[in-house]
Amino acid sequence: xxxxxxxxxxxxxxxxxxxxxxxxxxxxxxxxxxxxxxxxxxxxxxxxxxxxxxxxxxxxxxxxxxxxxxxxxxxxxxxxxxxxxxxxxxxxxxxxxxxxxxxxxxxxxxxxxxxxxxxxxxxxxxxxxxxxxxxxxxxxxxxxxxxxxxxxxxxxxxxxxxxxxxxxxxxxxxxxxxxxxxxxxxxxxxxxxxxxxxxxxxxxxxxxxxxxxxxxxxxxxxxxxxxxxxx
Length: 231
Hints:
Layout: H1 16-32, H2 36-43, H3 46-52, H4 54-110, H5 116-119, H6 122-173, H7 186-192, H8 199-206, H9 208-230
Helix pairs in contact: 4-6, 4-9, 6-9
């Protein structure tokens, strides 16, 4: 009679960490593999349509490059405006400092007992007037340059704003965007909008500093005679 052998069942413990890793890998595979619906949505996205169309992709790159150039030009012109402002301020300060020293010297000369000083009052007045006119001319030249650069900055900003709208429209429409469309320039936009400005008022507001300096220069001319002969 054959003896029965005892059968032993050996339980092999399963590593729980290994199980968790397998589950995580399965979840990643489920996430990374897109469903057909997601693929369809991605393919219908305007940016994917642009990437598949060489003409639209080239146009997008060109417009983005122009946007970058516009921004650089605007920043460069704005820094130039700041430097012109500082130069105008320095000229105005020099105008005031010069006349301050000038009238101090005139007042000290008027305190002397020399009567011939009063007869030659026109010499310091002419010097004051000539110096004032030179400084006013320099200020006017700087102001003219300032407003010229300022108009350029305004025009560059309008063109950049128009180009940004076209880029956004291209990104939203995708391949349905009309390639023959061009950004409207700042001049065309300005002509389409009605603006009524009275030129004398605009000119007066832009060159107010020059007008004030001219008034002071004309006032200083008779004041020199009053200082020399009045005391």
